Each structure stands twice: as structure tokens, then as C-alpha cells.
Amino acid sequence: xxxxxxxxxxxxxxxxxxxxxxxxxxxxxxxxxxxxxxxxxxxxxxxxxxxxxx
Length: 54
Fold this sequence. Notes:
- The chain is mostly helical.
- It has a domain at 23-54.
- It is 81% helix and 0% strand.
- It is built from two helices and no strands.
- The protein has helices at residues 3-18, 26-53.
């Protein structure tokens, strides 16, 4: 590995360690909840269809 690549990686590591975690926005929380809910509903439909068609 070249010294330029190594120093760039070290700078990136230092920058990431200094970065603070940002809280999720309300919209992001809603999107996560909707995605999980939709996934569970669709999984339920898939299971129901598999039992219904066999």
C-alpha cells in the first residue's frame, strides 16, 4: 500500500471517530416503521398463499 493511501485511510479513520451520531428524524422513523410493517404483512400474505395453494 502506498503512503498516500495509508495516510488517507488514517485521516478517514480519525474523521469518522470524531463524527457524532445524528438522531433519526421523525420522517425516517416513520419510513422504517412502514417498511417493517409492510414486510410483515406481505410475509403473512405469502405464507397464507403458500398454504392455500398447496
